[in-house]
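Batch manifest line 452
LIGAND: S-adenosyl-L-homocysteine
JOB: complex structure
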Amino acid sequence: MAQGTFHIITFGCQMNVNDSFWLTRSLQRRGFVESPLEQAEIVILNTCSVRDKPEQKVYAALGRIKYETRRVPGSFAVVAGCVAQQIGAGFFERFPQVRLVVGGDGLAMAPDTIERLHADPKLRLNLTDFSEVYPERDPALPEHGESPIPPVAYVNIMQGCDNFCTYCIVPFTRGRQKSRQADAILDECRALIDSGAKEITLLGQNVNAYGLDKHATGDVSFGQLLRRAAELPGLERLRFVTPHPKDLSADVIAMFGELPNLCPRLHLPLQAGSDRVLARMNRKYDMARYRELVEGLRAARPDIALSTDLIVGFPGETEEDFQETLAAVRDVGFMSSFSFCYSDRPGTAASRPTDKGEPAEKLPRLERLQALQEELSAAWLHGRVGCKTEVLLEGTSRKQDGDAENESWQGRDPWGDAVNVSLPSGTGAPGLILPVTIVTAKKHSLVGEVRH
Ligand code: SAH
Ligand code: SF4
Ligand code: F3S
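JOB STATUS: finished
ARTIFACT:
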């Protein structure tokens, strides 16, 4: 039964991307139909508040949506995610087209609520309370005949964060850490594998602190969960994101050498290379500890590749502090990094002092850091030429080879690099894992040739 049309716009991290993916399936299960923005009765914004810019994008998008959907009778907007949690009912005053505001914990109830709102045009609801335990969601897996699960899937294992890094809004927008029951996680992994997933990434804002919160998780540690996930029959590749260096235990480090399907790639946010700045960020590790972790990871898995997150221009950062960040990035040799200028976020400890001494040079420093990263990333990609590896196919690339006999497929190797391969038409399929030799390095990707 057709219920109505919807369109989701997603900002932010992988958790938001995964939440939107689940919401799409759950609404489809209820008979709602995905449609282009201009035709949607229900426009859902899944928002991010980690810096000021993504927050501002939400307000701009709401204005644009009002214009785009002006010919759709009864259309309304839903604001979900971290800006929803931050602003709450404030959205109703500023944007009358918003009829539902829903935070991370409330999302599990969003499909039922959207159904009610669609049926009752006078209703407006605010679902921004935090819950005590991880809010389980309906599984919303596709049934026979529906579009299948992509071969690369993501599974939430916790929600929220207890770390309170002094710059970060996430503990306020996602709430306290709540680990999910291990059985529910493994059941979801099994169901995804049965539906065609070959690779699973375990997700959480502080993923390796899994089980450390006081809420019952059946006494399963992150290491134990990782091992149990790795042993699931049919799972070819396992990853997790985002870990915190302070919670990276020796047993998890050792697993990179022990679990054959745990991929040799780790995104391990560093944030800054100066001990003074790290302490003021409340990161709870210093450079000596971070370097020790890197050595441990390389001892367990010599070919492991590391990527990271960095903040430039944290209040009080001196040129000397910044040079230590450059040195750390060069020494560790990150294959890639996400770096941003410090952005003041409401409610955080770092935003409180009025004269914080934010360095005027933050933009030029960011450019210097990104130039160094480009060099390192190019060296990494060029170093891959000639390597024999395996590519998990995800889909065909829009840009075709130009010859009808071949199709250009895109996939990833175990290090997470995007690899393009040309295959005879009709021989590729999403989820297929092919042995390839890397033949060319492009700016942000690789080209491989299939080995026969
Ligand atoms: N939980 C993860 C990621 C959190 S948010 C972690 O601990 O690393 C993703 C990234 O956004 C962070 O790693 C950080 O580099 C960046 N970030 C968070 N708050 C920021 C702020 N106020 N200004 C600039 N960058 C920020
Ligand atoms: Fe934010 Fe720090 Fe928590 Fe990451 S660990 S989400 S940076 S408070
Ligand atoms: Fe953004 Fe919230 Fe994720 S602030 S980074 S969407 S946890």
